[in-house]
Amino acid sequence: xxxxxxxxxxxxxxxxxxxxxxxxxxxxxxxxxxxxxxxxxxxxxxxxxxxxxxxxxxxxxxxxxxxxxxxxxxxxxxxxxxxxxxxxxxxxxxxxxxxxxxxxxxxxxxxxxxxxxxxxxxxxxxxxxxxxxxxxxxxxxxxxxxxxxxxxxxxxxxxxxxxxxxxxxxxxxxxxxxxxxxxxxxxxxxxxxxxxxxxxxxxxxxxxxxxxxxxxxxxxxxxxxxxxxxxxxxxx
Length: 236
Ligand SMILES: C[S@@+](CC[C@H](N)C(=O)[O-])C[C@H]1O[C@@H](n2cnc3c(N)ncnc32)[C@H](O)[C@@H]1O
Description:
The chain is of the alpha/beta class and 236 residues long. The protein has one domain (5-235): 3-Layer(aba) Sandwich (Rossmann fold), CATH 3.40.50. 44% of the residues lie in helices and 21% in strands. The protein is built from nine helices and nine strands. The strands form two sheets. It has a seven-stranded mixed β-sheet with strand order 5-4-3-6-7-9-8, with helices on both faces. A two-stranded antiparallel ribbon has the order 1-2. α2 (32-40) packs antiparallel against α7 and α7 (166-184) runs antiparallel to α8. The longest helix has 19 residues, at 166-184. The N and C termini lie far apart (36 Å). The protein binds S-adenosylmethionine. Residues 21, 25, 66-70, 72-73, 87-89, 92, 110-112, 127-129, 132-134 line the site of S-adenosylmethionine.
């Protein structure tokens, strides 16, 4: 069977990758928010609010937060506009529903196959989700399909930090994150996947190019925390 995808560092088939990612989020769902706070010293909250401040400006009548998980981003957008969460993990969305934010609705679906009409969405946001798609190219094409002409995609994702930060960041990722995962979420392999998947994900320039190749215009990016994370955007 051809091994055409990555799961962290390991080559796998697309079906295997999809199943493995499902298992990761099923396993970590109840500790997901706590782990984010611990791993990032709470900085992910600043990244998310900075992301939503920029993206929500482009919201319209129909907005989705893809790979929305426990609804952090949608909860912030919902203060300004209506928004649906789209995510294949029932377990993650169940945790999100308990937060009782004013989110319009929750849709169980994958980014590569959205149950939405062509050109129907004003704004697609995707935070820490694009790296988890089974097919990055397939997901980008599908996001482009559902956005209205003139509508926007905004993506928040881990990226490549500045050169001087890399040794510290790599040491922290390699030694601390899987141990924290084992201790708090009782699943070191899920957090080993996180570290490996960040390492093998396209950097800022490469992701921007992929957005442009999919057909997005006015693409750009902005680094957060010296490039540990980055916000990417594009207009259809
Ligand atoms: C790291 S979490 C991010 C959750 C949320 N956006 C946040 O920022 O906290 C990644 C999410 O991607 C979802 N996911 C995994 N595979 C996906 C796919 N093929 N399409 C869309 N979402 C997917 C997972 O279920 C999970 O909820």
